[in-house]
Amino acid sequence: MIDLSTCKPRAAALGAVGTLVWVVSVYALLVDESLLYALAVVPRRFDGLSGVLGAPLVHGSFAHLVANTLPLLILGGMVAVRGVAYYVTATLAIVVLGGLGLWVFGRSAAHVGASGLIFGYFGLLVARGYYERSLPSVAVAVLVAVVYGGMLAGILPRDPGVSWEAHLFGLLAGGLCARAGLVAPSRRGAR
């Protein structure tokens, strides 16, 4: 049976992230386009470091924003099942680790969008199944791999307008989080 008292805070945390992404992106697209560059990861430039935290919040177009919304909410929701603290910790770890990897190794361009975080959720959920080897974790890993496995093509450099590097480093960050136990579930119960 589902305990609704734990679902509400998880849904609220997920909704807050989704809303923040939409508000910042829409503001940048309609009101202040300079925000797109100000919050972008620009590799190996100190003024591009703000993008480590800011890039997932801004998108280059409405199509980009819409394309990222559903997987962000679905995969993020699967991460949030383990609790708000787990979801927030996983999200921050993936954003920081993936963003720093992108900043160090990415090609010289302004990288924006939540797809690095989405790939990080994918990596976390699949790797968690491998490392934990519990029935629920393996079942989630298989489901995620079957439904979203095609997105792995996004880590290949095919389109110069797509940050495959953000995808790759997000995926690696998610896998690293699962491997290192950086976002291990609380033993006191998930809230």
Explained architecture:
The chain has a single domain, classed as Up-down Bundle (Rhomboid-like fold), CATH 1.20.1540.10. The longest helix has 27 residues, at 4-30. Helices cover 66% and strands 0% of the residues. The chain contains eight helices and no strands. The protein has 191 residues and is mostly helical. It is globular, with a radius of gyration of 16 Å. The two termini are 16 Å apart.
Layout of secondary structure:
Blueprint: H1 4-30, H2 34-38, H3 51-54, H4 62-80, H5 84-105, H6 115-132, H7 135-148, H8 164-180
CATH superfamily: Rhomboid-like
The span between the termini is 16 Å
Structural domains: how many: 1
How much is the average pLDDT? 93
Supply the CATH architecture: Up-down Bundle
CATH class: Mainly Alpha
CATH topology: Rhomboid-like fold
- What fraction of residues sit in β-strands? under 5%
Count of helical stretches: 8
Range of helix content: 55-70%
**Uncertain stretches of 5 or more adjacent residues:** 186-191
From the alpha carbons, calculate the radius of gyration and give it in angstroms: 16 Å
Shape: globular
- Listing every helix as H and every strand as E from the N terminus to the C terminus, the arrangement reads HHHHHHHH
Number of strands: 0
Assembly form of the protein = single chain
Main structural class: mainly alpha
Major β-sheet annotation: none
